[in-house]
Amino acid sequence: MTVKGWTEERKQTAKTMWLSGQTAAAIAAELDCGVSRNAVIGMMQRLLGTGAKPRKQPKPAPVKKVRPSRTSPRSTKVAAGWDGTTVINGPVAEVVPPLVEQPPEPRTFWNLRLRDCHRPLWHHLERPSVDAMLFCGKPVVPGSSWCPACAVIVYQQGTA
DNA sequence: CCCTGATTCGC
DNA sequence: GCGAATCAGG
User: Fold this and answer.
1) How far apart, in Å, are the Cα atoms of A38 and each of A5, A27, A44, A87?
2) Could you tell me where the DSSP H helices lie in chain A?
3) How confident is the model at residue A151 (pLDDT cuts 50, 70, 90)?
4) What is the pLDDT of residues A95-142, one digit of tens each?
């Protein structure tokens, strides 16, 4: 089932994953067709109009760089469950739709993403099970691993 | 260095 | 329409 190209299913999956906060690379891996993360990003721009956001740098000098060849060795990527749900066969659309928006905080171990506040919330537990591993989950300060509130806490504790 | 998304532009 | 190259930020 490796039909190269963007099928409606593929677009839907990518779109939903993107909206749910998955990274482009993760989406590319999940789709597991010949798409790179750039392809995913490019598709999102066309599909969702990502370019609608105000850009910071107008990129003044798009000087033509050397483009010797476009051939790229596409490595086989492993499709792993991205939200704890194994998606191997069957219409992906049936497993993805339930995702409307971001899950409420705190985030679970499985839902925690790079930009979610990483401050652990289980410091009371000796041996927390994965299910008990909750993180703050609020949006982090860009460049940090914690949200503004947790950054202060972590800093005061000297755990930074 | 690695990663991320964003943009440009050739196909 | 598509995606690699490239860029810019973290």
Assistant:
1) 14, 10, 10, 22
2) 8-19, 24-31, 37-48, 148-157
3) confident
4) 444 444 555 667 777 777 777 888 888 776 777 676 677 888 887 876
The set of strand B positions with any atom below 7 Å of a protein CB reads 3-10
Specify the nucleotide whose C1' lies closest to residue A24 (CA). B5
Nucleotides of C under 7 A from a protein CB: 1-10
* pLDDT, position A126: 76
Q: What is the dihedral of CA A109, A113, A114, A115, to 10 degrees?
A: -120
Task: Tell me the CA–C1' distance in angstroms for A78 and B5.
Answer: 22
Would you say the pTM of this structure is higher than 0.70? no
Q: Which of residues 49-108 of A touch strand C (CB under 7 A)?
A: 56-57, 59, 63, 65-67, 69-70, 72
Distances (CA, A) of A92 to A32, A88, A104, A128, A131: 13, 8, 23, 32, 25
**Chain A 98-157 contacts with nucleic strand B (CB below 7 A):** 114
Do residues A100 and A115 lie in contact, with contact meaning Cβ atoms separated by under 8 Å? no
